[in-house]
């Protein structure tokens, strides 16, 4: 009989050995320290057969920005089983337990990085982020008009507050990026000794952009840009000029940005090698509380009925009346639909994609996943914030 338990400190070694075996991790002090940090910060759940831990996952209690609003988010990671325990339903029970725990803690949305999109759709998750990767050749550089102000290589310990302030200012109005806390900066983003930092300051010596990068590849011949965050166009150009000064020393440069990001204005030729890829998945954990916190546009008086189906989190399966009157937004649960209200019906995956703005209401209605009229889909889209979801963290 399989039993699901919240793991304690005494069970960390069992959890670590499971992850080393299942993910083929190298059993090193660095790997163990990183996992211990996540274990101590997050919530770990395990499936046991007798006294043996056979499957596990970790929930990281995080927060994300959503256009000025802060939402509680549960990051699911390290979902794994011993090979002989797979296919017996343990992961489903762990996921159901994690969702229940997240709801009880007031978490309204959850992200994860899938090994299989199809697999996690069974638990209500859907792809909600895309990324655009640029492979830049050394010869692509050379057309920048370098600002007179300089970019300096800096140490994290010396400039951490400036770096964090730039990130916060850039991301607070975005859709979906993690609102990094001290633990995330120190234990995840800056824990690797390979990462390097450069900082741009304007004429008044105010920090306006930073570059987080590392050298990778078999011969350290790849310049990998982990983050380039700029508050002004001048800062952006200056940071790319700094990258360009390395052109003679590297075979290629790799940069991954938002799905809608374009770099053609920065290079002398417009034929940069680039590709799009699906990224992390998301799902709404608690629809009612999510809707109560969502930053709807207050542009005109409108009323909608939102019907939700959710095979994993049944508490979401309700009919919600959303009313907007002037600056007031009200939400209520109703038993019967009102014939005078615009009605939309979808499963939790579709609602997640819509509210994350990964897909627009009209596109979802066209493909059939959002059940409503074309006119209602258009009307509903007008009350949603505009933007493209972006995410710069991985777990």
From TrEMBL:
In alphabetical order, the GO MF annotations are: aminoglycoside N-acetyltransferase activity
Task: Give GO BP annotations, semicolon-separated.
Answer: aminoglycoside antibiotic catabolic process
User: Residue limits of the N-acetyltransferase domain?
Assistant: 2-140
Segments forming a coiled coil: none
What highest taxon heads this organism's lineage?
Bacteria
Question: Pfam families, from UniProt?
Answer: Acetyltransf_17 (PF17668), Acetyltransf_9 (PF13527), SCP2_2 (PF13530)
Read off the InterPro entries from this record.
Answer: Acetyltransf_17 (IPR041380), Acetyltransferase_Eis (IPR051554), Acyl_CoA_acyltransferase (IPR016181), Eis_dom (IPR025559), GNAT_dom (IPR000182), SCP2_sterol-bd_dom_sf (IPR036527)
- Give UniProt keywords alphabetically: Transferase
Q: What is the protein name for this chain?
A: Putative acetyltransferase
Taxonomic lineage of the native organism: Bacteria, Bacillati, Bacillota, Bacilli, Lactobacillales
């Amino acid at each position: 009989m399989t039993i699901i338990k919240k793991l304690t400190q005494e069970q960390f070694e069992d959890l670590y050995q499971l992850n080393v075996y299942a993910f083929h991790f190298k059993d090193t002090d660095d790997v163990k320290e990183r996992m211990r940090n996540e274990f101590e910060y997050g919530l770990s759940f395990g499936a046991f057969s007798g006294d043996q831990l056979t499957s596990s996952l970790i929930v990281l209690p995080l927060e994300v920005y959503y256009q000025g609003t802060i939402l509680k988010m549960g990051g699911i990671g390290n979902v794994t089983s011993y090979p002989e325990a797979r296919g017996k339903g343990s992961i489903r029970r762990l996921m159901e337990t994690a969702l229940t725990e997240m709801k009880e803690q007031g978490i309204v949305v959850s992200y994860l990085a899938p090994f299989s999109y199809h697999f996690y759709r069974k638990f209500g998750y859907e792809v909600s982020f895309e990324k655009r990767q640029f492979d830049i050749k050394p010869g692509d550089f050379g057309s920048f008009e370098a600002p007179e102000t300089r970019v300096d290589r800096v140490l994290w310990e010396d400039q951490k507050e400036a770096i964090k302030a730039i990130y916060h200012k850039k991301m607070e109005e975005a859709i979906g990026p993690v609102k990094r806390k001290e633990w995330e900066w120190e234990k995840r983003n800056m824990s690797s000794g390979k990462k390097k930092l450069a900082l741009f300051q304007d004429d008044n010596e105010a920090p306006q952009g930073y570059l987080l990068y590392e050298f990778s590849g078999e011969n350290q011949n790849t310049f990998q840009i982990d983050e380039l965050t700029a508050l002004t166009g001048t800062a952006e150009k200056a940071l790319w000029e700094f990258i360009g000064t390395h052109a003679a020393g590297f075979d290629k440069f790799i940069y991954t940005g938002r799905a809608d990001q374009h770099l053609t204005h920065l290079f002398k030729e417009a034929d940069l090698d680039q590709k799009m890829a699906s990224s992390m998945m998301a799902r709404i954990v608690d629809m009612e509380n999510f809707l109560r916190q969502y930053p709807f546009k207050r542009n005109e008086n409108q009323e909608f009925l939102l019907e939700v189906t959710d095979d994993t989190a049944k508490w979401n399966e309700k009919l919600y009346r959303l009313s907007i009157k002037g600056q007031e937004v009200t939400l209520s649960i109703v038993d019967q639909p009102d014939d005078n209200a615009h009605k939309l019906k979808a499963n939790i995956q579709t609602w997640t994609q819509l509210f994350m703005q990964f897909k627009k209401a009209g596109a979802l209605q066209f493909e059939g996943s959002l059940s409503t009229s074309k006119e209602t889909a258009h009307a509903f889209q007008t009350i949603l914030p505009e933007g493209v979801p972006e995410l710069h963290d991985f777990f």
